[in-house]
């Protein structure tokens, strides 16, 4: 029987009228006909109202039923498992998707603790999840390993939702769960691809750096040396043709070669700064600060008290990143000053590059477009590939701060004390002095020949021999005992700095004069600390080498 039964409503109406008529007659037997008619009209109105209320109730009932049907249809067709459990975790309702995910029949799943479907090591965590849902009325979700009756194990995301009752019934927990095997496989594939990408990126950066080093080596070992040799030959020719018109042409050519040497030094520094390779990251950052002055950017550098002892690969990476950040400052920030601060905690090295320029908004910092525009994305990827990190913060008109961090530093001994660069003054020829025996050490035969040609024009100089590296030089010094060794810095087998250290310890009577294409303060510091008397550039050798030898001998007496 339903509200829609018209027969039932008609019967109910008839019985209600009869009963009402009896009640009225019993209560008021002498009621007038007019009063009875009025009462009947009122009853008719009430009857209509009741019918309207019944219609509304029926409509609400239909809507509720329709909603229940839709919910049930969704509940049974959705590809996510739903199960309702009580406070003890017992399952008393589960949808078809849940049964399919668990690989269970309805009879096997009902009246069974849901935790029994979890792997043993996850069972206790699930119980704690349900307790938290009951106590804190929160929607909590975690990942677990579930076990099917067949024994197969699979990952699932499980969410516990507290369902409170308004009727005083015990609270229920609705469990929503989904098989995430495909997602886990996709994540694993993504991780593998990411590792492969990082490896390829590292290989690319390594190849780029190797190519830069190769080009820098070719420039240093061939082009620069050849230019220096040409300069030596020109200097000889100028002395021989002092009064000839050819001397003017030679002077012009000499100026052109000077420009070419300056350009190759700049190119070499951009590709692979010798100061970084020969003296480490700290010296390279100081050198970089001086270089940035030529671009109108005044950079202050703060270094730790002791060398950080970073390996070459990480040193090159950090140097390149700092250089790019400083170039960004010069190009985009409108700042004229910047600061580079290096420090470390344990084995973690931290370099901060900051300026007080115009900066940019925090939103811009987060966008890949901005990161790419300023080369920051490349820096971040290179640092991440090397196991480090890169963070940048900025705000309009308050400048930018960039922080590079990487593991791998090993604190070493104190920096060697900087010694002043000797100033060589022209003292003229001293042919009336006793002969000076000289050993030439350079890995380029043409360079040694050029130096020999220059020095042999002086009657008080005797060339005892030539060596191509520091190791050979030590053997020849032991045999020949020269008074002066003219020592190139960059050589294979044993470089000039290491060889000079051995010479000053084993042969203190021998004077060492350093020679380099790039005689910067770092190279000077290294050679002087090793025991050399002076360091001069190869291009200055024509004019200054002889005088340097004479001055070194006079000092050693």
From TrEMBL:
<dbReference type="InterPro" id="IPR050482">
    <property type="entry name" value="Sensor_HK_TwoCompSys"/>
</dbReference>
<dbReference type="InterPro" id="IPR000700">
    <property type="entry name" value="PAS-assoc_C"/>
</dbReference>
<dbReference type="GO" id="GO:0016020">
    <property type="term" value="C:membrane"/>
</dbReference>
<dbReference type="InterPro" id="IPR058245">
    <property type="entry name" value="NreC/VraR/RcsB-like_REC"/>
</dbReference>
<dbReference type="InterPro" id="IPR003594">
    <property type="entry name" value="HATPase_dom"/>
</dbReference>
<dbReference type="InterPro" id="IPR036890">
    <property type="entry name" value="HATPase_C_sf"/>
</dbReference>
<feature type="domain" description="PAS">
    <location>
        <begin position="67"/>
        <end position="137"/>
    </location>
</feature>
<dbReference type="Pfam" id="PF00072">
    <property type="entry name" value="Response_reg"/>
</dbReference>
<keyword id="KW-0175">Coiled coil</keyword>
<dbReference type="Pfam" id="PF13426">
    <property type="entry name" value="PAS_9"/>
</dbReference>
<protein>
    <recommendedName>
        <fullName>Histidine kinase</fullName>
    </recommendedName>
</protein>
<dbReference type="Pfam" id="PF07730">
    <property type="entry name" value="HisKA_3"/>
</dbReference>
<dbReference type="InterPro" id="IPR035965">
    <property type="entry name" value="PAS-like_dom_sf"/>
</dbReference>
<feature type="domain" description="Response regulatory">
    <location>
        <begin position="437"/>
        <end position="553"/>
    </location>
</feature>
<feature type="modified residue" description="4-aspartylphosphate">
    <location>
        <position position="488"/>
    </location>
</feature>
<keyword id="KW-0418">Kinase</keyword>
<dbReference type="GO" id="GO:0000155">
    <property type="term" value="F:phosphorelay sensor kinase activity"/>
</dbReference>
<keyword id="KW-0902">Two-component regulatory system</keyword>
<dbReference type="GO" id="GO:0046983">
    <property type="term" value="F:protein dimerization activity"/>
</dbReference>
<feature type="domain" description="PAC">
    <location>
        <begin position="140"/>
        <end position="192"/>
    </location>
</feature>
<dbReference type="InterPro" id="IPR011006">
    <property type="entry name" value="CheY-like_superfamily"/>
</dbReference>
<dbReference type="Pfam" id="PF02518">
    <property type="entry name" value="HATPase_c"/>
</dbReference>
<dbReference type="InterPro" id="IPR001789">
    <property type="entry name" value="Sig_transdc_resp-reg_receiver"/>
</dbReference>
<keyword id="KW-0597">Phosphoprotein</keyword>
<feature type="coiled-coil region">
    <location>
        <begin position="40"/>
        <end position="77"/>
    </location>
</feature>
<dbReference type="InterPro" id="IPR000014">
    <property type="entry name" value="PAS"/>
</dbReference>
<feature type="coiled-coil region">
    <location>
        <begin position="183"/>
        <end position="210"/>
    </location>
</feature>
<dbReference type="InterPro" id="IPR011712">
    <property type="entry name" value="Sig_transdc_His_kin_sub3_dim/P"/>
</dbReference>
<keyword id="KW-0808">Transferase</keyword>
